[in-house]
Structures are given as C-alpha cells and as structure tokens.
User: What shape does this take?
Amino acid sequence: MTTIVTHALLSTIPVYVFFAIGFWLRSKGALKAEEDKPVMQLAMDVAYPCLIFYNIMRYMVVEGNAEISTIGFTLRAAGCGFVEMLVGVGAAWVVARMLRLHIGSGLRTFTLTAGMQNYAFFVIPIVQMLFSAPGDSTLGVLFVHNVGCEIFVWSFGVMLMRGSMRDMDIGVFMRGPLLAVVVSLILVWSGLGQYVAQAPVMKAAEMTGAVATPVSLILFGCFMRDMLTDFKWQPRMLISGLVARLGLVPLLILLMAWALPVEAEIKRIMVIQSAIPSAVIPVLLAKRYGGQPSVGTQILLSTTLCSFVTLPLWLALGNALVVQIM
Assistant: This one.
C-alpha cells in the first residue's frame, strides 16, 4: 500500500512542475495570452497526433503485441473510455440536481466539468512513470482507450453544453488526435503499418511527439494563472465539485473496472482515469456555447490542486481491489 502511494505521488510531480512553469511564465509575462493559439496548435495539431501515431505503431507493429492489436480489443478499450465519461457526467448531473442547479445557473457547466477527467495530458506522464518497463504497452492502450473519450466529448459533451445536436458541425470530429488514432489503427489492421513504421518515420514521430505533453501542461499552467484574474470563489459549488469529481466518480469507475470482463491492460487505464481531476475542455466549451465558465473554472482549479493528495489514494485502492498496477 505504502509503495504504490509513494510511486503514484512521485509520478504526479512532473505534471505539477509543468503547471508551475506555465503559471510562472504567464505571471512574468514571458508567455503572453496572444501567443497561446500558435503554441497550442503546435501541441494539439502536430505533436500530439505524432505522439499517438508513434506509440500505436510501436506497440502494435514494431513490437508486434498481438493482444492489443485486434479490433475486438480496440472496441473494448474505446468503449470503456466512452462509458467512463458517461458514468462520470451522469454522477455529476445527480450532484448538480441535488444542488438545485438549473440551466442558467451552472447546471450544464457543473455537470460536464465535474464529470469529465483530464484524460490525456494529465494521464500521459503518470503512465510513462508507472509503466516504463521495456515492452510495456500501457501507453499505447491509453491512446486507444481515449478514442472513446474523444467521441463522447465531441458528441454528447458538445450537445450537453449547447443544449441540442441541432446545427452540429461535423468538423468537431475532424480533430488531429482522433484522426491520428483512426489512421494508425487502419494501418495496423490493414497490414500496411509494417511498411510505414520504418526507423526514419518512427524517429521523427517520436521526437515531434515528445513536445506534446510538456508544452500542453505548461499552457495549462498559463490558463490557471489567467483564470485566477478577477475570480470569485463559490464554496458550495467548489466543495460539491470536489465531492463529485474526486469522490463519487472515482468510486463508480473503480466499481465498473472491477465488474467489467475486460483485459487487465484496460482495467489499469480505467483505474488511473478514475482518479484524474477535471479537464479544461468543459470550461472552453462553456465559454463558446453560453455556459458558466466561472463555475467550471473553480471546479477545474480545485480538483487539479486537491488531486495531488487524492490521486495516489485512489490508485492504491484500485491496485488493491481491481488490478495490480505495480
């Protein structure tokens, strides 16, 4: 128990170091808000797709992990990612209704922010730290799992924040990370991956992809600094968000991971995802579609800070009751 808590705690430290760097850079004016867009485009539209491509090609083609290369495994992993989001948002909606929130007072923003975890960049360094053994395919499984998360966010997530699917733009699905997974899996399943995953291509993808996580986390630190400007805390909303995101939702996802008849690799990802704090995407969606960004902001900031304590504890519980992580 003590070992897993210690290792989990140590694995989260790089995440918070990058947050602190971004917070400091914004505070000093070294990275201005108007410079965020091109940097984010580099991270999300170039580096992150390369990171996904490299890891899927590495584990499914270069190292030939037959177990995780099948269509069935992919559907199970992505399906679990989708259901996790559905369970999380459903639980957050129940808490929001108990708070008597309604549309206009933060119902949609609370539900989405407290229900959705930061499923990508917060998780990647933790997985890299915990599963660093040669040939360990956990990182590759993470990206396949996250297909389900992406589909949920850009379908039900957008619908929830907008209030309907009317006039939905199909372009929201044409995102670099999602396309990178789809293209990579097609290459794997068609057998063409062995011709594409050659040393020069793989090295270029590895080097470019290495930029994605630190740059994105540093930008998140910048956003945290911006969000604290002219901000008013609402204790009732904050505490409820913490209870939902770091208490109720992890418990439900751990129970789901324990009960579902899926591979251990998928269960490990589910255990880690259960403990992750809120994502920044709901706050951005709230700004775009008329939600309550201030509600999402305080849930995002509070869960991110408090998860430094709660995350190792949930991982230890998952390690003891669901699947061995270490």
